[in-house]
Amino acid sequence: MPNTMVDELALRDLVDGYAAAADAGDAEAFTALFLPEATLSARHGDEAPAVYVGSARLAEIPARLARYRRTFHTVTNHRFEIEGDTATGGALCQAHHVSDGDDGATDLVLTIRYDDRYARTAAGWRFATRDVHILWTAEHPVTIF
Predict the structure, then answer these.
(1) Host domain of residue 120
(2) For residue 145, what pLDDT band results from cuts at 50, 70 and 90?
(3) If pLDDT is split at 50, 70 and 90, which confidence band does 2 have?
(4) Can you give the CATH number for the domain in which 120 is found?
(5) Least crowded by CB within 10 Å, which of 8, 32, 66, 120?
(6) How many structural domains is the chain composed of?
């Protein structure tokens, strides 16, 4: 009999690990969360998505975030539907991206919905696909300590 609670905790750890690896700029930890042939697509509203397929392309994502002084992803509202060794689910996220500018630091805040498909592997749950839907953004000045 499957232990849904254990699987849900492992999937939550996977989803939260994505945020931690992205914020740390750790491409190795980031790509380890995905199947080798996984796909990530990211879109703003109705725009055509940017698509990353496979480990080499996925490794570009933490490097792209390095243009910011700091990032901070807060992930909430986790949800999962588990069927054997596959699952679907997702979460909501507020992603902060702090930059230095001529007039001081600013924070670009993205409100995101993640829609995911997962696969259980010998190493644990991994992302098979991740669709990143940027729902809205806001930008405001911040003070960095």
Answers:
(1) 4-142
(2) confident
(3) low
(4) 3.10.450.50
(5) 66
(6) 1
